[in-house]
Amino acid sequence: MYQLCPSILSADFNRLGEQLQILEGSGVEWLHIDVMDGVFVPSISFGMPVIRSIRKESGMFFDVHLMICEPERYIREFVSCGADSVTVHQEAFGSPEELTECVRLIRSLGAKAGISIKPATPVKAIVPYLRDVDMILIMTVEPGFGGQKYMEKCTGKIRELRSVLEKEHLDTGIQVDGGIQDGTLETAVKAGANLIVSGSYVFRGNLEENAKRIMEDIRRFSQE
Ligand code: DX5
Ligand code: ZN
């Protein structure tokens, strides 16, 4: 299963509802929602009230990426606001037990669970959790801001994780996030990513045309 996951961090918040309708009307099924606390990452984005509000109007799958400290404190609330999937950062936890407990909590609430790793964190840091999650998010920029440049050195991590999943016969998703543009989209899909987050590449210019074109490109690259 391949999905384009547009990141609303690059949306025009004055026209958010309208832009989400355009995405949904273009056939986009997933929506990537970046929550930042100004501590885990330098910037602050938005939180529960925005998610609750767009949930009322949108049938898309809400993929919530938590770039926050102590994510376990907020899991219940994000799920009750309408998150279909919650992704936490491996680096936000003090011990493997706490991370395991958190992803199990997410699933126990009926949501899908994900773990994300920053560019400097190796794939082996998340291998022990593969059976407890639905997807692994490989960051290809330092988390915190949209519109940054894809870090080529992360492509090897996508490939490495794809080969671990194949060896273990797991269908865990591989999500890629950061710097997806012309060229890097092809690189990430061909390396093995199937859930493609994109902010500026989707929202800059004509939203509907971009979304349709990028979904078609993902489909093509996944078959080449
Ligand atoms: C960065 C966020 C990304 C961001 C991607 O910390 O996690 O989801 O919105 O934006 P682009 O696609 O513009 O790099
Ligand atoms: Zn993100």
Topology, pairings included?
Blueprint: E1 3-6, H1 16-25, E2 30-36, H2 48-55, E3 61-67, H3 75-81, E4 85-89, H4 96-108, E5 112-117, E6 135-139, H5 155-167, E7 173-177, H6 184-191, E8 195-198, H7 200-203, H8 207-223
Helix pairs in contact: 2-3, 6-8
The structure holds D-xylitol-5-phosphate and zinc ion (ZN).
Zinc ion (ZN) binds next to strand 2.
Uncertain segments are none
Assigned CATH class: Alpha Beta
Any idea what the radius of gyration is?
16 Å
State the helicity in percent bands: 25-40%
Largest sheet: 8 strands, parallel
Name of the CATH homologous superfamily: Aldolase class I
What would the principal axes of the Cα set say about the shape? globular
Description:
The protein is α/β, with parallel strands linked by helices. The protein has one domain (3-223): TIM Barrel, CATH 3.20.20.70. Helix content is 36%, strand content 19%. It is built from 8 helices and 8 strands; from the N terminus they run βαβαβαβαββαβαβαα. Strands 1-8-7-6-5-4-3-2 form an 8-stranded parallel β-sheet. α4 (96-108) links the parallel β4 (85-89) and β5 (112-117). α6 crosses α8. The radius of gyration is 16 Å and the shape is globular. The two termini are 15 Å apart. The mean pLDDT is 98. Bound molecules: D-xylitol-5-phosphate and zinc ion (ZN). Zinc ion (ZN) is lined by residues 7, 32, 34, 65, 177, 197.
